[in-house]
């Protein structure tokens, strides 16, 4: 059984395989999710490009975007063959591109269709099928509608729901605005857990600290960390030690960089990536630390060079260490 206590949210253009490899170095236990991949991309596109991942990423789940039950079932089978531990159906993304494909948050208006998708996927594979949604969309934002949505899909066999504690406005707000403007309503998700105690309920939205996580775990079964896990990734090491293993020896940020270098070198040698494809995920590693600005600036300036290699990371580390030495000298 997957440990769902803490997970990192699927974030489009962010939680790709490079980011997940990096995050796994910080926490052996958190559940990682892919960025959303559409059924069409898997069925008709470069499957390896979208689904390949490093074995060290385990446990890792695939988030699918789609609304055709049979296509979703086909993709669930493919995901299982690739080794994913879970398939998650996206019923929360509010972007225009997603709506035009008739999937994402707009599916909250059609719970029977979502239930059909879930049931068909569950018939196809024996790995968990989960759903990630909002608390409502547009005018369909009553608690009664949310309960009907949850109950309908649970009857189709889904026992785990990840709920972003905001509604989504499908018209008038951009995806970015939909992550910030609709107010967080944690109490709605807490009530869902109270009313559906037999279901696993994971809360998502605005969680940034150990204290935030502790508070939510008093009310629900798990938490999903979004942007904070990307912008301040070392938080995962703190979460690992606090929630999973009190004896966990948190790696230093410098040690994480050294562990990334062999991976980066292999990726560059294979021709599958340029340095900036990977280092963009590392920009927040020194967040809140002395030298963080120098780290970000050095990587931002030098990694985009098409011929840049892993030596850029060592030079960026040297820039951080120089700042730290200077600060120490001034303190003396």
From TrEMBL:
GO terms for molecular function: flavin adenine dinucleotide binding; FMN binding; tRNA binding; tRNA-dihydrouridine20 synthase activity; tRNA-dihydrouridine20a synthase activity. Residues 8-316 form the DUS-like FMN-binding domain. The record marks 90, 176, 179, 293, 296 as: Interacts with tRNA. The keyword Isomerase does not apply. FMN binds at residues 10-12, 63, 132, 164, 204-206, 226-227. The active site is at residue 93. Its cofactor is FMN. Its EC number is 1.3.1.91. Keywords: Flavoprotein, FMN, NADP, Nucleotide-binding, Oxidoreductase, RNA-binding, tRNA processing, tRNA-binding. InterPro entries: Aldolase_TIM, DUS-like_FMN-bd, DUS_fam, DusA, tRNA_hU_synthase_CS. Pfam families: Dus (PF01207). It is an enzyme of class 1 (oxidoreductase). Transmembrane segments: none annotated. It catalyses: 5,6-dihydrouridine(20) in tRNA + NADP(+) = uridine(20) in tRNA + NADPH + H(+); 5,6-dihydrouridine(20) in tRNA + NAD(+) = uridine(20) in tRNA + NADH + H(+); 5,6-dihydrouridine(20a) in tRNA + NADP(+) = uridine(20a) in tRNA + NADPH + H(+); 5,6-dihydrouridine(20a) in tRNA + NAD(+) = uridine(20a) in tRNA + NADH + H(+). Belongs to the dus family. Belongs to the Dus family. DusA subfamily. Catalyzes the synthesis of 5,6-dihydrouridine (D), a modified base found in the D-loop of most tRNAs, via the reduction of the C5-C6 double bond in target uridines. Specifically modifies U20 and U20a in tRNAs. This is tRNA-dihydrouridine(20/20a) synthase. The gene is dusA.
């Amino acid at each position: 059984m997957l440990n769902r206590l803490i997970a990192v949210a699927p974030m489009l253009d962010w939680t790709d395989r490079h980011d997940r490899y990096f995050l796994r170095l910080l926490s052996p236990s958190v559940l990682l999710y892919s960025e959303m991949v559409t059924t069409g991309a898997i069925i008709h596109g470069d499957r390896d490009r979208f689904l390949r991942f490093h074995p060290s990423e385990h446990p890792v789940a695939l988030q699918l975007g789609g609304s055709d039950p049979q296509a979703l079932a086909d993709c669930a089978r493919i995901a299982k063959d690739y080794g994913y531990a879970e398939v998650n159906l996206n019923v929360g993304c509010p972007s225009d591109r997603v709506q035009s494909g008739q999937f994402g948050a707009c599916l909250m208006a059609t719970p029977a269709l979502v239930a059909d998708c879930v049931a068909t996927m569950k018939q196809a594979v024996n790995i968990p099928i989960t759903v990630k949604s909002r608390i409502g969309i547009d005018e369909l934002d009553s608690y009664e509608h949310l309960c009907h949505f949850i109950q309908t899909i649970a009857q189709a066999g889904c026992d785990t729901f990840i709920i972003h504690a905001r509604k989504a406005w499908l018209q008038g707000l951009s995806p970015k605005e939909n992550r910030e403007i609709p107010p967080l309503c944690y109490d709605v998700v807490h009530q869902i857990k109270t009313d559906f105690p037999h279901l696993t309920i994971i809360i998502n939205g605005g969680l940034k600290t150990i204290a935030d996580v502790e508070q939510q775990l008093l009310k629900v079964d798990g938490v999903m960390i979004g942007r904070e896990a990307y912008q301040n990734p070392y938080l995962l090491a703190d979460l690992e030690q606090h929630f999973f293993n009190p004896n966990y020896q948190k790696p230093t940020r410098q040690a994480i960089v050294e562990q990334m270098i062999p991976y980066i070198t292999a990726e560059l040698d294979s021709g599958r990536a340029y340095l900036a494809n990977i280092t963009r995920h590392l920009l927040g590693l020194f967040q809140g630390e002395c030298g963080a600005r120098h780290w970000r600036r050095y990587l931002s300036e030098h990694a985009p060079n098409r011929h840049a290699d892993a030596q850029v990371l060592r030079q960026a580390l040297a820039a951080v260490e120089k700042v730290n030495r200077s600060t120490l000298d001034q303190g003396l």
